[in-house]
Write a structure and sequence with these properties.
With 354 residues, the protein is α/β, with parallel strands linked by helices. It folds into two domains: 139 residues, Rossmann fold, CATH 3.40.50.2300; 144 residues, Response regulator (Rossmann fold). It is built from twelve helices and twelve strands. The strands form three sheets. Strands 2-1-3-4-5-11 form a six-stranded parallel sheet, sandwiched between helices. Strands 7-6-8-9 form a four-stranded parallel sheet, sandwiched between helices. α7 links the parallel β3 and β4. It is elongated.
Length: 354
């Protein structure tokens, strides 16, 4: 069966080739109904756009790709005096590791951020320009993922594994278990609140399971679910503080706030300071990821350091291996994490883990 072309898509959708091209290059320039008709035709045919004719003969571009979610903190951007850098820093480290590893193997790196509602379109667009593609912690429609995987090797970073694809993630459960256990045993805290990420975040849910496991170990009631959820931004951390303080009213408040990532924890530290709450004197706070900002805030943030840069390195290694052996069995790699005890839980800065 021949590979479908832009001509096939245009014919099936009843549009010009130029229209098909605009759908992938500048989708907002095409009317919604027409755009959806073109994308539907492409899905039916299994078409993935090609970025250039340079690699037609060899089917090689010398480029690897990375698609990752655009966690844009719109509330932060619009708030007076807000820091415009309040966007997810996690992906920056992954990109850095992947770029260095790609360069060592003689590849360039193409990176693309996308919002959830355009993840599938963005994925197919990038796939046509690269030899292999990494997808970072992003919900992608199954049909788009399967279509792209038929054309180029795909490795999934973080999130849940997908049948037939290589996958790399970190020990989310173990990290959260250790940090929660530390709060319950070393600091003798008994009332904790967990601020989770979106419900469809596998990493966030794995971290909550570790949080639950620590409570079971300590003989404490099992938390049924996160006390609050947020979108992993600093603004979400500030909002979580307002919600939690409002929910508890004059009753006993949590002795510690456990956040699913560092960004939310940093936002919470700012909100708690504005309320006159002393951290860690009145309340302990922990995060997860180990971004550079976690050691720059005051108090310094207790967190779980995950090997973000190494995620990118592992992605390249798996893609290169897959390009040299397409019939290899799918490989899953689990990277270890390291708890870092700092001032926000009541420890000395960068205290060694017991």
């Amino acid at each position: 069966m021949s590979t479908p072309t832009v001509y096939d898509v245009a014919e099936r959708a009843g549009v010009s080739i130029a229209t098909v091209s605009r759908v992938y290059r500048n989708p907002d320039s095409v009317r919604g109904p027409t755009r959806e008709r073109v994308l539907a035709s492409a899905r039916e045919l299994g078409y993935v756009p090609s970025g250039s004719a340079r690699g037609l003969a060899s089917r090689s571009t010398g480029v690897l790709g990375l698609c990752y979610p655009d966690f844009h903190d719109s509330e932060s951007d619009s708030a007076p005096g807000a820091d415009p850098g309040e966007v997810a820093l996690y992906s920056d480290e992954v990109i850095r590791g992947m770029e260095r590893a790609a360069r060592r193997h003689g590849y360039a790196l193409l990176i693309a951020a996308s919002h959830a509602d355009e993840a599938g379109t963005r994925l197919t667009e990038v796939a046509g320009r690269v030899d292999g593609l990494a997808v970072l912690a992003q919900a992608v429609p199954e049909e788009a993922l399967e279509m792209v995987a038929r054309r180029v090797p795909v490795v999934l970073l973080a999130g849940e594994p997908y049948d037939g694809l290589d996958h790399v993630k970190v020990a989310n459960f173990d990290g959260q278990l250790q940090i929660t256990r530390h709060l319950l045993s070393a600091h003798r805290l008994r009332r904790l609140a967990f601020v989770g990420g979106p419900a469809d975040s596998p990493d966030g849910e794995a971290r909550f399971l570790g949080y639950q496991a620590a409570h079971l170990e300590a003989g404490l009631p099992l938390p049924a679910g996160p006390d609050v959820r947020g979108d992993l931004t600093q603004a979400a951390g500030r909002k979580a503080v307002e919600e939690l303080f409002g929910a508890y009213g004059d009753g006993p408040r949590p002795q510690g706030l456990v956040f699913a990532n560092d960004q939310m924890a940093v936002g919470a530290l700012h909100a708690l300071e504005a309320r006159g709450v002393d951290v860690p004197g009145d309340l302990a706070v922990t995060g997860f990821d180990g971004i550079a900002l976690s050691r720059l805030v005051r108090p310094t943030l207790t967190t779980v350091r995950q090997p973000m840069s190494q995620l990118g390195v592992e992605a390249v290694e798996l893609l290169v291996a897959r390009l040299s052996g397409r019939e290899r069995s799918p490989e899953a790699r689990l990277l270890p994490v390291t708890p870092v005890w700092r001032e926000s839980c009541g420890c000395a800065t960068d205290a060694a883990a017991p």
